[in-house]
Write a structure and sequence with these properties.
Radius of gyration: 19 Å
Largest sheet: 4 strands, antiparallel
EC number: 3.1.1.-
Protein name: Lactonase family protein
Strand order of the largest sheet: 3-2-1-28
Order of helices and strands: HEEEEEEEEEEEEEEEEEEEEEEEEEEEE
Keywords: Hydrolase
Structural class: mainly beta
Organism: Pseudomonas fluorescens
Strand content: over 45%
Number of helices: 1
Distance between the termini: 36 Å
Helix content: under 10%
Enzyme class: hydrolase
Amino acid sequence: MNKPLLLAAAVVCGFSAHGNAATFAYISSPGDGMISQYRLDENNGALKLVNQVNAGDQVNPMALSPDGKTLFAALRVKPFQVQGFSIDPTSGHLTPQSKAPLAESMAYLATDRAGRYLLAASYGADTLSVQPVDKADKILTYKTGPHAHSLRTDPSNRFAYAGNLGADHVLQYRFDADTGALTPIGTGYVSVPANTGPRHLAFSANGKYLYVVGEMSGTVTAFSIDDRSGALTPIGVANGIPDRLKLAHGEVRDARNNDLKDDPTPRIWAADLRLSPDGKLLLMSERTSSSVSAFAVDAATGGLRFLDNYPVEEKQPRNIAFSPNGQWLLVTGEKSDTVGTYAVSDTGALKRVSEAPSGKGALWIEVLHTAAK
């Protein structure tokens, strides 16, 4: 039943020799099971909804293959599965190909840098998984502390790191690109202050630094990466929550109390973290205040400096994503009817320039630029 998930890439012979360059965004919305395809005009930031496909109940995290030919989407209802879609090289439209099992309900999905393995993190099952996309039922699993929330390989594809929210650990591994196996580096983790809640990750392009957002603290911790061992060393912390937001420290959330309905206190609830293509800006989304915080990045030292926090119109923004040229930011809101495009200034200031209808509970964004041939 489960064909290789790389089938989608195999049936595509490459981007059209006569196609024009285009930028597409794919956004999952678990509330209606849809993946919406948008076209982004990188000249002016205009966003247009062009197509939707029914991906399945509770479609949530997604990942693009490095060659841009396949989109993977995780379904968070039993039986837990990943759906592979081929991407039309001209129109960007998605065509469902094969499905494969997932180890658990996954909150995070990525591929390794070569596109051979699918990496996933399960928040509820405290588990990381690695599976080859050509034999996707061969799944390696690794237990973590409470609430694993991300898993990515570094730019060299030699190391892998994971945010372990409930344990206040950033997990560190050697990654075997031949087998997909993860081997702990040293103790297997570095600690951050209690109740930080390590969540999503971002790497500097040169692979020297790792940035980790704290869901409950609203801080970003910077780490240097040892080029030989992959071991992490903390080099600084920047706070992205100004006093004017009047947010109390966050709490650990799960399926039983995700919205903290019995707690009226506005609390920090940071989510996504994205580095600009030029490596000079780091942006963090914060859900309670419906805002995005900007940090300046020192490329030489890896250090961070908080710039400011900017409100967005999308309520409860989950994922954010830069356009390939770095001039625009896409923002989804789990409680918003629209997806917004924002012009990004050199200092990280945001100005909303366009919007398009969103699916229900829109959250995960993947952006693809197809170059003219």
